[in-house]
């Protein structure tokens, strides 16, 4: 079947077809490249996969307003959304590269290589990577190599003319012929090339091998060679399906194998160890939970937050895997004596247990990024005392395994009243991986971003003047005590309530390190009414409150404000989260009828 049998209509149809196949080829090549790089990253310790590294760069580079928008919009799903975004972007680029590559393979390959430099740079600059730079580059290099080879292989197959016999006129005694109609329009202009040696991008044009068949009439068998520099309309109309399918199967197999390796070795070593840990007992008995700390109101935030419900806020796109085997915590800087502790060393020390409510600065008024847990660990002041803090130091710069830095006032850590803890357990179990396993800091009264370092590996006694912590370079204050706040849990905004019933208006209020003295509620801007408080456990935890309301028919606004134990009453002035925490009264609108 000669190329001339195809009219313009069919040619266009075939091109459209090929365009789609090209997109699929790009996607497949991208999948293989990503899978192999993910597999390598899973096999190498301390190496971040290119996908995550790019995501991490995106997190770090995201301007604050956009980050706040993301947290507002997606809440704790911001990580899956971001990773999903990176994957979708990569997939779209791969489809475009493949589709363009059908006609312009060199353009597609070039674009792919340029774009994959992003992965290289992200890998080199990744905060959470701890391996040597050379190792860190490996997955990104593999991504480039596998992607380029797979893309070329698939495009080559898509651009290879089908094994079609073309009748041609004899032109010499050897039976060599010149095709009457070159399927690609460039016959004769090219040097022959062996079908077994894949052409490269710089290879010459199409070649028509001629065989003399039995009946004496020479025929051209159009071989499936890569006419890589043939662009545009020079594309053969029918391509070699078998060759394409074979290439697709090979690339697909690489993708599946990469995915399998990643699944098998991508697991967390820490998770296995965590299951086998026996927690020590605190040195002194844990203060009993005061009776009456919990109110019996449906829908109110439980006094203690189960680990599975505890909010999570961090910059880690994948939970850092920090095995206790090999874990050391270093305490150094402006100290008389450096200390290095293993996990076992820590467990062997004096332990305290305390309930502390952790709060994130990223709470809008009425926000839900707060949780109350029982923390078990080593008093940080014990360690600082042992190390011997030198004069002039006013800060501790703590660093996590994923290289997040947090700056905390030394005073808060040394304060014997405050019980800042190097925690190893949360609510009676070893720290969950997402909450900082094996060791994290918990400091009453300070927002998490200036105190609650998860996966902590390094504590440096220093001066605020001498360093900048992660968030302090991103528009947040260097110091950030938790602001007094109250939240209405029930009724929910836009709820319908019944007139004639007594409706509990209830929630939690917090003012860690100061304690809550009173909570007041008002309806439609009327007089403030005293809510009933649950018993106070300690000044570092939140307090539940309830006020019974007899609503009139209609739509109402309920507002709440708390007064802390210093006598300070929450201001109604609304300020945003940045730079050091929102203020304002939480309110809900409900309809009674
Ligand atoms: N290593 C590390 N520790 C971190 C963070 C982080 O991004 N990385 N985020 C901090 C912030 S902003 C908060 S509010 C608390 C949240 O702790 P949680 O996730 O256990 O609730 O952890 C803090 N510790
Ligand atoms: Mo936070």
Automatic annotation (TrEMBL):
GO terms for molecular function: heme binding; molybdopterin cofactor binding; sulfite oxidase activity. Residues 165-214 are annotated as: Disordered. Signal peptide: none annotated. Residues 182-204 have a biased composition (Low complexity). GO terms for biological process: sulfur compound metabolic process. Keywords: Membrane, Transmembrane, Transmembrane helix. InterPro entries: OxRdtase_Mopterin-bd_dom, TAT_signal. The chain crosses the membrane at residues 20-44, 81-100, 107-125, 131-155, 244-261. PROSITE patterns: TAT. Pfam families: Oxidored_molyb. Residues 318-471 form the Oxidoreductase molybdopterin-binding domain. This is Molybdopterin-dependent oxidoreductase. The lineage of its organism: Bacteria, Bacillati, Actinomycetota, Actinomycetes, Propionibacteriales.
